[in-house]
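In response to reviewer comment 3 from the previous cycle, which asked for concrete evidence that the modeling workflow produces usable outputs, we include below a single protein chain processed end to end. The sequence was submitted unchanged, and the resulting structure tokens are shown without manual editing.
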Amino acid sequence: MSIGLIALLDDVAGIAKVAAASLDDVAGQAAKAGVKAAGVVIDDAAVTPRYVVGFAAERELPIVAKIAVGSLRNKLLFLTPAALALGAFAPWTITPLLMLGGAYLCYEGTEKVYEALVPHAGHAHDAQPDAGGDGRAMEDRKVSSAIKTDFILSAEIMAITLAALPEGGVVTKAAVLALVAVGITAFVYGAVALIVKADDAGMAMAASTSRSAFGSFVRALGRGIVKGMPPFLALLAIVGTAAMIWVGGGILVHGLETYGLPQVAHALHAASSA
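The workflow returned the following structure tokens.
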């Protein structure tokens, strides 16, 4: 009886060691894959804040939360299973699907540029999202648009992650993809929340009543943040739009190279080196 118990405990210890090694492996692979996807993550963080510009301050964090939940749902419920299934059964479909997503990003980014250069009635209406009962409808449209854009960027992130993984079991790949999905979503939308609420923090700092030298410094810093956030958000909106076109174009160019058409990539490289 005691020998059987010892053998059982030994088996349990062995399983625990294997599980611990697997967890370490998953964490390590997730970290490496996350680094490779860093470029798209930065683009995602730059794109999102423009969707909350113009809304009342009390709606900013709820909007960010809605987009974050939609983003996580995209990654965990749709993109991770799809990536695993396509990678296992139809790997040839991944590139054309990514190219379609890249084309969508280019289209949306170009549309934003056109709206900025040639304002029209619909665009002017969008500039006042809090007017009357249309505010909630406008918020819903903004959130929906942000989640759609995030879906494309998330698909690129998950594709990069999947491509970066070594050969392994489906469970390990699924765990890595899920870990990357949660980690990147938390990072991106945590950063977005800090960005969009920085002006409120600045106002609180500027209202400090401390008479010390440190209090004066805090008030000055707060005033600087309040004054600096509007141009910073405007700049971030420009960066986000450029990022959409950049990432979308990069996906298309890489896809063309995959299909044996490297001329566009070579032309772009030559132009950038000139």
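The first helix runs from residue 2 to 36. We consider this sufficient to address the reviewer's concern, and the full set will be provided in the supplementary archive.
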